[in-house]
Amino acid sequence: MNRSIGKLQTKSLSETIVSELVQLIASGVLKPGQRLNEVRLADSFGVSRGPLREAARELEGQGLVVSRPRQGFYVAEFSVRDISDLYEVKRWIDEAIIADVLTYSDVAARQEILADVNSIDDSEKMAFSTSLFAYRSRMVERLHNRFLASQALFLYRQFHIVTALVNPNDPEARIERIIGTLRRFWQALVDGDGDTASRIMAEDREFWLADLMPRFAETDTAAERQRRK
């Protein structure tokens, strides 16, 4: 895992390490509940432990890692409650995005976002997850409300991590569903049909909640058994 970053300005260095750590978590190299080995990671990135800790604190602020007194930083674990809360927030953000786009974005801009769906790499799970997050990052940059954009990006980063924690038997079908939903959602917005866009997102949230909750219930049970040992 030699991912030397090289010599960069302090701020850029910290941001780059954040991105590298997110990739390691999302790819499953760093697993939920795993401790961040600062010495090994700093050596792998070719940096000192200072910038690494700064990046870890940034990820802690985003909810992706947690710190434990005198133990260090650990990759966050998602519970059933976490998944439920994420989708509740997604409901609010979905509706806010629809309102923002219909109020401030012209049809040409919406068509560009719809066309950009084709840029998502659907070849395999992690390439898809990374490409989907990149697509969503480009999308939120076009939002008029900058606070909404920052909150949406934070939420999408959480889902980027959740994707890494799920190992389905049918990844191709899941990828196809996500891309299809995005196309239908943005086509509705191109048509100026906010009600249809809202319904598409509501149905999508309901589907994924039904799919994910049992998976993370199993994770909760396994974690509880581990704590009792």
Summed up:
Pfam families: GntR (PF00392). This protein is mainly alpha-helical and 229 residues long. It has helices at 10-26, 38-45, 49-61, 80-104, 107-116, 125-141, 146-165, 171-190, 194-228, and strands at 65-68, 72-75.
List the helices and strands and how they pair.
Layout: H1 10-26, H2 38-45, H3 49-61, E1 65-68, E2 72-75, H4 80-104, H5 107-116, H6 125-141, H7 146-165, H8 171-190, H9 194-228
Helix pairs in contact: 1-3, 4-7, 4-9, 5-8, 6-7, 8-9
> Number of helical runs?
9
Please report the distance between the alpha carbons of the first and last residues: 32 Å
Could you give a short account of the major beta sheet? 2 strands, antiparallel
The level of helicity is over 70%
- Structural category is mainly alpha
CATH-level-2 architecture of the largest domain: Up-down Bundle
Give the overall form: globular
In CATH, the topology of the largest domain is named: Four Helix Bundle (Hemerythrin (Met), subunit A)
Number of domains: 2
- Regions with pLDDT < 50 over 5+ consecutive residues? 5-10, 225-229
Q: Class of the largest domain in CATH?
A: Mainly Alpha
Strand neighbour order, sheet with most strands: 1-2
Helix and strand sequence: HHHEEHHHHHH
Provide the residue-averaged pLDDT. 87
Query: How many E-type strands?
Result: 2
- Rg computed from alpha carbons, rounded to a whole number of angstroms: 19 Å
